[in-house]
Every structure is written in structure tokens, then in C-alpha cells.
Write a structure and sequence with these properties.
By secondary structure, the protein is an alpha/beta fold. Helices cover about 40% and strands about 15% of the residues.
């Protein structure tokens, strides 16, 4: 890739207890407390190289931020990142918001924001010697792993709930992955991956259970800064399953401040979950620092059907530190949000994207968003993967 710098990665550090870990090895969770590891960089050196002049000469992919990404060698890339930030004027008029924007992640190579995480995770797994990769998935992560494993000449085993939409299953199989359907939710799939990792030696790329998917997803925060001409929005509304996107962007904003790109101001972060699976919303409302497992999780948005998340502490911390909140929406409201994004803005949004639209009336009621605020909604995937779920709700 022309005119890109070298990584300034210095190590890994637990995001909760702070214990350092060796970044030259394949690592998963903290060996002291079992919480997610975060990549750390020499940000003074990164700032000297990652300048507006340098960025202007770089290709429009997330690897334009090489200094604050972990890969030492050539990345496994399919051209991911630099997705459009669209001014949603029609949708804004409906909700009384003049500065409403959609960050449309459905235009990533595999149809969702999961491509960002997998380009980084697969690149680092290959650099550290992994040959076989596995992941539990609600759909999008499995498609992304299958694609990037194929590009890296590695094998991929994907474990998904038995009721995963057929479009995801077909896509994963077309991309060469071995697909295993599991009776249960994504946490049951995760248990199968852990069992297989012990038996077969494959490397588990579960959300936040290895450190580098987060690094790919944090680039959404860097892109917002560039696409908003050197500023950030007032509010970010984000659909939350495992929460890696929120945690990643919060990490990016901290790095940007240390490099002198921004001051201490931050967007307020809003986590949107399904009413039928809202562990973060419940924990946030109760003032808890951890989120208990949500029993009998149900929602049409498979990416939001995550009853328990290893990154719960980091998600809740980011929401509170940003002055944000967490809200739950019904599936019918999500479907209506999908229709609004389509009819008003021409975006074929996944139910998760529709959930962010559905959250706007409650955020208006609470006064967290208003006409004077610059607000960004994230559509994290394409409706084309959910047509069988969406069709009955038209």
C-alpha cells in the first residue's frame, strides 16, 4: 500500500486491571482478570507521521491509519473502510434534526462493519502464526471471517445459531468456511468454539476475546473526524450487541486527543439494543458496572441477540464517561426505522440500523438530541442479509 507508515504498536494492556501482555504472541483475554486486552501505541511517534498531509496521499481504506493499527506486515485487505457519511436531510426533517447523518457500514466488502474487525484480526492472527480460525456469529462476523480467511489462505470454522438467516449461511459457505449450526444463542456458539479451540488448536476470534477486531472497528471514529473536516459529532447512536464498535470509537477518541487532533470534548455515546435482549440497557439504568446475562433473548436483529458480552464493563464505562445513555426499542419500531432509512434516504439498512432510527423519539424526549445537535446514526449492515426476516414486516 503506497505511502503508508509503519505500526507504532508497543504492547497490549488489560482494559480493566491494566496488566501488560506481550503483543508478539497470540493473545486472547487478560491472564489476570479475564477481561479484554487493548492495543497500545507510541502515539508521539504516530502523531509525527499520521498527519493531514500524509493522509491526503493515502488510499481510501481503513489501513490509511497504519501507525495506530497493529499490523507489521502487509494487511489482509479487501478494501474495507472509508464508508460514506451521508447527510440525512429527509430523515432529519421527520425527526426535527437539521444535522442528522448516517454512517453507512453496509458498503464494506462483506456487507457490514464486521469487515473492519476481521481485516485487523485475521492479519494479526496470520502474522502470529495461526493457521485455523474460528468464530461464533449471529451472521455478519461469520461472513467477514470467511472472506478474510479465504484472502489470507487460512481455514475458517463458523458457529452460528440454527435459526441464522439463510443469506448468511449461504454467504459463509460460498466463501469457503465450514459452517456449524448450533441449537442455542451466540453464547452457546461461543462455548462450542472454546471447546474446539482446546481440541483442535484453532484460534478463537470471538468479539473482544482477542485484541485486534477492536482495532479495526475503532477506525470508524478516525473516519468521522476526517469526514467531518476535523471535528466530531455531538451524539453517536450505535446498535449494540457485543459493543466492540462503541468501545473501539471511544478508544480512538482517546488516541486522537493524545496525538493532538482533538481536545477533551467527546461525542455522547448512545447504545441501542432490542427490547427482547437489552442487558446493557438494564445495567446502565441500574447503575451497574457489569451486565448480567439476558435470559430468553429474542429479536429479529440477529446482531443484537447477544445475551452476554465480555466487554460489558468497557461499554458501560464509555457510555457513562461520555455522558451518553442506553435505550431499548421494539422489533416493530426497528422495522419501521428500516423503512424510513429506505424511503427517506435510499439506504438498504439492516434491522440494527433501523434500531438507531427507532431510538430517536426517546432521545428527543430525554433531550439528549435536538435541532442544535450534530447526530450520527450507524447503519452496521445491509438489509439484503435479512430479507426473510424483514419481508413479513413490510
Amino acid at each position: 500500500m503506497a505511502d503508508t507508515g509503519a505500526t507504532t504498536l508497543t504492547g497490549l494492556e488489560c482494559g480493566v486491571c491494566g496488566k501488560p501482555h506481550d503483543a508478539s504472541l497470540l493473545q486472547r483475554l487478560c491472564t489476570a482478570c479475564g477481561r479484554p486486552l487493548l492495543a497500545r501505541y507510541d502515539l508521539a511517534r504516530a502523531a509525527a507521521e499520521l498527519t493531514p498531509a500524509a493522509l491526503a496521499r493515502r488510499p481510501p481504506t481503513l489501513w490509511r491509519y497504519r501507525e495506530v493499527l497493529p499490523a507489521a506486515g502487509p494487511p489482509v485487505t479487501l478494501g474495507e473502510g472509508w464508508t460514506p457519511l451521508l447527510h440525512a436531510r429527509g430523515l432529519g426533517r421527520r425527526h426535527g434534526l437539521d444535522d442528522l447523518y448516517i454512517k453507512d457500514e453496509s458498503l464494506n466488502p462483506t456487507g457490514s462493519f464486521k469487515a473492519r474487525g476481521m481485516t485487523a484480526a485475521v492479519t494479526l492472527a496470520r502474522e502470529r502464526g495461526a493457521k485455523r480460525l474460528a468464530v461464533p456469529t449471529a451472521g455478519n462476523a461469520g461472513v467477514a471471517l470467511a472472506a478474510y480467511a479465504a484472502a489470507a489462505d487460512l481455514t475458517a470454522d463458523v458457529f452460528c445459531p440454527a435459526d441464522t438467516p439463510a443469506a448468511f449461511i449461504t454467504s459463509m459457505e460460498l466463501l469457503g468456511a465450514r459452517v456449524h449450526r448450533v441449537n442455542g444463542l451466540i453464547d452457546a456458539c461461543g462455548a462450542r468454539v472454546r471447546e474446539g479451540a482446546e481440541a483442535t488448536g484453532w484460534f478463537d476470534l470471538s468479539t473482544l476475546k482477542e485484541p485486534y477486531r477492536l482495532e479495526g472497528k475503532k477506525t470508524m471514529g478516525y473516519e468521522l473526524f476526517e469526514q467531518m473536516d476535523g471535528s466530531l459529532p455531538d451524539v453517536i447512536v450505535y446498535p449494540t450487541g457485543g459493543g466492540t464498535g462503541l468501545v473501539g470509537m471511544w478508544k480512538a477518541f482517546g488516541e486522537m486527543e493524545q496525538m493532538g487532533w482533538i481536545g477533551p470534548e467527546r461525542p455522547r455515546l448512545v447504545s441501542v439494543q432490542a427490547a427482547g435482549c437489552a442487558p446493557m440497557v438494564r445495567a446502565f439504568a441500574a447503575g451497574d458496572t457489569e451486565a448480567r446475562r439476558w435470559e430468553d433473548a429474542r429479536t429479529m436483529a440477529s446482531g443484537l441477540r447477544v445475551p452476554v458480552a465480555v466487554g460489558d464493563v468497557l461499554v458501560l464505562r464509555a457510555l457513562r464517561e461520555s455522558g451518553g445513555t442506553a435505550v431499548a426499542v421494539e422489533d416493530a419500531a426497528m422495522a419501521a426505522g428500516v423503512r424510513e432509512l429506505g424511503a427517506e434516504e435510499g439506504i438498504l439498512a439492516a434491522p440494527e440500523g433501523g434500531a438507531t432510527v427507532a431510538a430517536l423519539p426517546e432521545l428527543r424526549r430525554q433531550g439528549l438530541v435536538g435541532p442544535s445537535h450534530r447526530v450520527v446514526l450507524f447503519n452496521t449492515g445491509t438489509a439484503l442479509s435479512y430479507l426473510e426476516a424483514l419481508a413479513p414486516l413490510r
